[in-house]
Design a protein that fits this description.
Chain lengths: 565, 324, 351
């Protein structure tokens, strides 16, 4: 009896402690109903993972940008509209578009008067310099974009966070901001409009503010941030109609984002109206049901839609490693790739294509997405025989190839399908799937000698330079290489350099088109399509009238509204 | 507690610490020596430059010799200052947030499986050899043979989404809504319990059968005690001892084992799921923290049980370690 | 996740006791004094259920080993071939193997795509058989590895005691302390990326040797501890004393005298170890740390299947059933073996 008692007591104590700990769970719940809190309108939306950062200086993913572009506004911003109009620049916190000097190296702007952050702090011109300093000092992924500012390098190597950046002059009394660049940069206005340059007060510390996000000027403000559980945006009372012309005030009072790692669960919750919106595309498994019920031709009210994005999906081919150092082999892959087959793995969200620049991007060539593509119509089955013949001619039959891919759905499937297709063409390919967190550095390391693998690029801003740096010989590095195919073509390099100095994109759009075609002809890589993302909402949201999609920042929470009851 | 007991306890505790130390070193080596990702590059973001990466390396000390890094990692672990390489969040806080969920799952399941196992085991033993016993044995064996993640995935889809009876997954804090908390845990508890009910009920059954054949039970019967009294006072009590001990040991192991799979399938976002994601992302700080936490649980429960047994069985004390 | 059984120290079987229980046994064969192994054999043969289970498992294994035959002659494809753009006749109508929304076809009950296709358009039946081959072989080889290593370590620790025992037991404790899945996933993930480079031997990251090694190591303590316990008890027996008196070296005694008596423990353990190893491999593969794509295993098939559970439930259900059936047959057979070995064996289960 004693033995039993003792055992029970010991374990009982342990169990009771555990239960005690289990019950005192802190914080609010996740995955709870979408019911609004009281009278104020409120929606609950989901993301599959905590955004990389909730700090404008640091975040470099759409997961962070989508909420934050409504909280922080840079000097210049994008029109809050759909389609091509949404990629036009308009003044943000500056009162007008920048005046660019003749040599393209000086940008002058003036801050609007009377602006306040969400906590009431007045906005000063010098806040801009502090904002840029944070981007540089915090080793942000966006820092390279701003290193073209005079004095940025000196600031970085100086090691003093509070030092001045010589290339940025500000006058708090007049609100004038002058930016000097070390060289002309055609896309610099776009760079100024990036989320990195969203203004924050000068007293914002030089540290990652995710746990306690800084105030900004925008339709929403952060009122809560619990990493890996949820964050809450509430309507910014200091932001009114006309505060920033062209940037609307929010309709919905509260937008709560909860983190739900399981995409199928999110999908089911939105279908069941327990969740108001999901940022990811719905799980492929449910797409058929969703289209049937909530699609444009669905049986119920429409609350699902696909939209094209400025993105290209492609496979890189390492031009410095066998067998892809042989142009014949590269051509063979482009000819033999079965693009419609790959599209099936995306559950209808990939549009097969042949162009490197996606539709709606200046420089896109529509004829490439037809039978006029040098490698065959991307919407038709490929000429496998011709591809096999080319491989034989090149003597590459049976060549061993490792096909790289990361583990984020649907990449593993695509990678395996691609490897199988290479096998059909006559190569000996095997897929290798690695975790998303280490994928880019693995393939970006020259010593890995990655031969081919999965890549995509979503435009940071609507300028071809943002895509072409991926194939610019000047960007090749031994580690963290972004030009993974080591594309180093003299003509391409020269054109990129020349075009980067052109301040007006519309003047040179045709040259970009030529360059795009040249790249596709050279078969340095294998573009195969453009991705469509989705808007999927619960039925209480007014999908018909209030669901705009901006080409850069996608879903605009501030323009959402609820159906009138 | 006399001195022999005290010496034994101290010996066990020392050995516990040594084991934990070895575990920490092993984890550190696995993720630093085996070829994997460079954490400095991970943190540098989408388009890292050399200067950026160098700066991060210096700031976080990735360029220091391994043993220095190890000491720093352990310092951070104990001071609660560990920062994840992938998410830049404080690891201890993340674990603290996930702990109630994992414990809710583990403790709830443990209580359920014990209750059912005792009932079923007892029933089986009393009906030993008959059809109902065989039937229950078959059920138990099936329960042991099913992969927990498989049965969990089927349950959450068919009973959750399709039938709409249970939630689609996820977890609701007890303090927010106790009923929802319970409702979200029913399926995970079931999945986790099926495995252990099957196995514990069979252990109990064989223990009871064995005890019933013991001499002292025959004596009790001969003395004229009612069958029921015999059962309760002697048989059950003694058969329960090994079960209870196993329960303690298993509980520690569940935290680090089946809980991970169950949490992942039901999306409970507890410590187990956090661990699985960190491992896949080769993120050392959370891996170290969770493994140490799990190991600590296992080792502690082991030690507690050993000490309890030693207190009751002098032979073990003298021999230095139990023969288990 | 099924812990194997281990014997309480001392009760290694009835072979060496001269007590009256044998005389009082109801079993005529036992009373007649037949040798212990023959007794076991007889009891096992009489246990029809256990025998059938054993046969079921062997049949499963055989069909999985015959995978190449099915693939070549019936399905006419390989486990890696993606048939994304192909069409197949279903009820006379040409149907996409994988439709434009990614939904694969269900079972056709024909030679091609007998059980349907998966999300990449691969033949499920072919992958099931090849995957089974991987899953079952990994389980078997890992279990044998555990027995080999656990046996040696347990014997050394139990027989030699002292220093060797302390070190080995401590090492066992360390492995024991690691949460099982965490250790498996940690090793599996770390090794999958770069493989293992042990100087003369290099193992690729996607080689099956890696999950085999990991699983074998994880289960060593489960075997080594009971073996150690038995060795500890047996070393005091008369026959060991006699051997020592004859001048036999320690190592020889350990392996020629003590080992055979531990054999009964091993025989009981083997089916249970294999069953556990198969389940552990499935768990690891499900989490992405076991068998690497494009190779199939029942665990990876379930992981891929769950993604398609709404539109193609057979992708999840079928591999899971195969897993359950294999493990179940092993468990039932293992039960039978244990019962046959000693119907009165005291069994303690440990995790």
């Amino acid at each position: 009896m004693r033995k039993l008692c003792v055992s029970f007591v010991v374990l009982g104590l342990a169990a009771v402690t555990s239960i005690g700990l289990a019950s005192c769970g802190g914080g609010d719940s996740s995955g709870d109903g979408a019911g609004g809190s009281g009278d104020a309108s409120s929606v609950t939306i989901a993301q599959a993972a905590q955004p990389d950062f909730l700090d404008p200086a640091l975040s470099y993913t759409i997961h962070g940008w989508e909420p934050m572009w409504l909280v922080y506004t840079p000097l210049i911003t994008y029109k809050r509209e759909e389609g091509k109009a949404g990629s036009e620049l308009i003044p943000g916190l500056a009162d007008a578009m920048p005046e660019v000097s003749a040599d393209g190296r000086t940008y002058e702007l003036t801050l609007r008067k009377g602006l306040e952050y969400s906590d009431g702090t007045p906005v000063k011109a010098s806040d801009f310099e502090h904002t840029i300093k944070r981007v540089l000092n915090l080793e942000s992924g966006g820092a390279p974009y701003y290193e073209i500012i005079e004095g940025a390098d000196a600031y970085l190597s100086g090691g003093n966070a509070n030092a001045d950046i010589s290339g940025i002059q500000t006058d708090d009394k007049t609100g004038e901001i002058t930016i000097k660049l070390t060289a002309p940069e055609g896309a610099f206005s776009n760079v100024l409009a990036m989320n990195f340059a969203g203004l924050v007060p000068s007293d914002t510390p030089f540290e990652n503010m995710t746990q306690d996000p800084a105030p900004g000027v925008g339709a929403y403000m952060f009122t809560k941030s619990e990493p890996n559980r949820e964050f809450v945006l509430e309507k910014n009372p200091k932001f009114e109609e006309g505060t920033v012309p062209g940037v609307p005030v929010a309709n919905i009072e509260t937008v709560k984002t909860v983190i739900i790692p399981s995409v199928p669960q999110q999908t089911q919750d939105v279908i069941d109206n327990e969740l108001d919106f999901m940022q990811e595309p719905p799980a492929a498994d449910f797409v058929a049901e969703i289209l049937d019920r909530f699609g444009p031709d669905g049986s119920e009210d429409q609350r699902f839609e696909e939209f094209t994005t400025l993105s290209t999906y492609y496979f890189f081919l390492n031009t410095e490693v066998a067998p892809f150092d042989d142009p014949k082999v590269r051509e063979a892959v482009n000819i033999g790739l079965d693009k419609p087959a790959l599209a099936r793995l995306f559950a209808g969200t990939l549009e097969p294509g042949c162009s490197f620049l996606p539709p709606e991007m200046p420089g896109y060539v529509e004829s490439l997405d037809s039978a006029e593509c040098p490698w065959g119509d991307p919407n038709q089955p490929p000429d496998l025989e011709r591809a096999q013949k080319l491989i034989k001619e090149a003597g590459a039959e049976g060549a061993k190839v490792t096909v790289w891919g990361d583990n984020v759905d649907p990449t593993p499937k695509v990678t395996q399908a691609y490897a199988d297709q290479l096998n059909q063409m006559g190569l000996d390919a095997e897929p290798k799937i690695v975790d998303g967190g280490v994928y880019f550095q693995t393939i970006g390391n020259q010593s890995t000698e990655a031969q081919t693998g999965f890549l995509n690029w979503f435009a940071d801003f609507p300028h071809p330079l943002n895509f072409f740096f991926l194939v610019d010989g000047a960007t090749i590095q031994p580690t963290n290489n972004q030009n993974i195919g080591n594309v180093d073509d003299p003509h391409i390099n020269k054109e990129i350099k020349a075009l980067s100095e052109e301040p007006n994109l519309n003047d040179v759009a045709d040259r970009w088109e030529d360059l795009n075609e040249f790249l596709v002809d050279s078969a340095y890589l294998v573009p195969y399509g453009y991705r469509k993302l989705t808007t999927f909402m619960s039925e209480r949201m007014d999908f018909e009238n209030c669901a705009p999609v901006n080409p850069i920042y996608y879903n605009d929470y501030s323009q959402w509204c609820l159906k009138d009851e | 507690m006399n001195s022999a007991m005290a010496r034994f306890a101290v010996r066990r505790l020392l050995s516990m610490l040594l084991v934990l130390f070895a575990v920490s070193v092993l984890v550190f080596l696995i993720f630093n020596v085996m070829p994997n990702g460079d954490p400095a590059v991970r943190m540098a973001g989408k388009i890292p430059t050399e200067t950026q990466v160098e700066a991060i390396r210096e700031e976080w000390g990735f360029d220091e010799p391994l043993y220095v890094q190890y000491v720093r990692t352990m310092e951070q672990l104990f001071s609660g200052e560990m920062i994840s390489y992938a998410t830049r969040q404080n690891v201890s806080e993340e674990i603290w947030k996930g702990l109630p969920r994992t414990l809710s799952l583990a403790v709830g399941a443990a209580l359920i499986w014990m209750a059912f196992a005792i009932a079923l085991g007892l029933y089986s033993a009393l009906r030993a050899g008959r059809l109902s016993d065989r039937f229950l044995t078959v059920l138990a064996l099936i329960g042991i043979s099913m992969p927990v993640f498989w049965i969990g995935a089927l349950m959450v889809y068919y009973l959750g989404y399709k039938a709409g009876i249970f939630p689609n997954g996820g977890y609701v804090e007890f303090t927010v809504n106790p009923l929802e908390w319970l409702w979200h845990l029913v399926l995970p508890w079931t999945a986790l319990s099926i495995l252990f009910i099957g196995f514990y009920s069979r252990v109990l059954r064989s223990d009871i059968l064995e005890t019933m054949g013991e001499d002292y039970v025959r004596t009790a019967r001969a003395k004229g005690l009612s069958e029921r009294r015999v059962l309760l006072k002697h048989v059950l009590r003694n058969s329960l001892i090994p079960i209870v001990t196993l329960w303690g040991l298993d509980f520690g192991a569940v935290i680090g084992g089946a809980a991970i799979l169950t949490e992942t399938v039901f999306d409970l976002q507890g410590v187990g799921q956090y661990a699985a994601e960190s491992i896949k992302g080769l993120d050392l700080p959370p891996i170290m923290a969770v493994t140490m936490f799990g190991a600590f649980f296992i080792v502690t429960f082991n030690a507690l049980v050993d000490i309890a047994y030693a207190a009751l069985d002098p032979r073990i004390r003298l021999e230095g370690r139990s023969s288990r | 996740m099924v812990p194997p059984s281990r014997d309480e120290a001392g009760s290694a079987g009835t072979e060496f006791t001269l007590d009256s229980s044998e005389q009082l046994s109801r079993d005529p064969a036992e009373r007649a004094g037949l040798g212990p192994w023959r007794l076991t054999g007889r009891r096992l043969r009489r246990d029809k259920v256990a025998l059938v289970s054993g046969v079921v498992f062997l049949l499963l294994l055989a069909s999985c080993l015959a995978a190449p035959l099915w693939a070549e002659h019936v399905a006419e494809t390989t486990p890696e071939e993606n048939h994304l753009s192909d069409q197949v006749l279903v009820d006379g109508k040409p149907t996409d193997v994988v439709d434009t929304l990614g939904k694969p076809i269900g079972p056709t009950w024909n030679g091609h795509f007998f059980l349907g296709a998966d999300g990449n358009g691969r033949d499920i039946m072919v992958r099931l058989l090849y995957g089974g081959r991987n899953s079952l072989l990994i389980g078997l080889v890992a279990a044998l590895g555990t027995i080999a290593m656990g046996l040696v370590l347990g014997l050394l620790a139990g027989y030699y005691r002292g220093r060797a025992d302390s070190v080995i037991s401590w090492a066992m404790d360390v492995i024991w302390a690691f949460p099982v899945i965490l250790l498996g996933v940690a090793l599996g993930t770390a090794l999958a990326l770069g493989g293992l480079d042990l100087g003369p031997i290099t193992i690729q990251g996607d080689s099956l040797a890696i999950p085999i090694l990991i699983i074998a190591i994880i289960y060593i303590p489960y075997l080594a501890r009971p073996v150690r316990g038995q060795a500890l008890a047996l070393r005091e027996r008369e026959f060991v004393e006699a051997a020592r008196a004859q001048g036999m070296g320690s190592l020889r005694i350990a392996f020629t005298e003590v080992l055979p008596n531990v054999a009964s423990t091993l025989v009981v353990f083997l089916p249970l170890l294999v069953a556990n190893a198969i389940l552990l491999e499935a768990s690891l593969s499900f989490l992405g740390a076991g068998v690497q794509p494009p190779a199939a295993s029942w665990g990876t098939m379930i992981a891929e299947g769950v993604e398609r559970i709404a539109t193609a439930p057979h992708l999840t259900i079928v591999p899971g059933l195969m897993l359950t059936l294999s493990v179940l047959s092993l468990n039932v057979f293992g039960e039978g073996v244990r019962d046959a070995l000693d119907p009165r064996a005291r069994v303690r289960i440990e995790h």
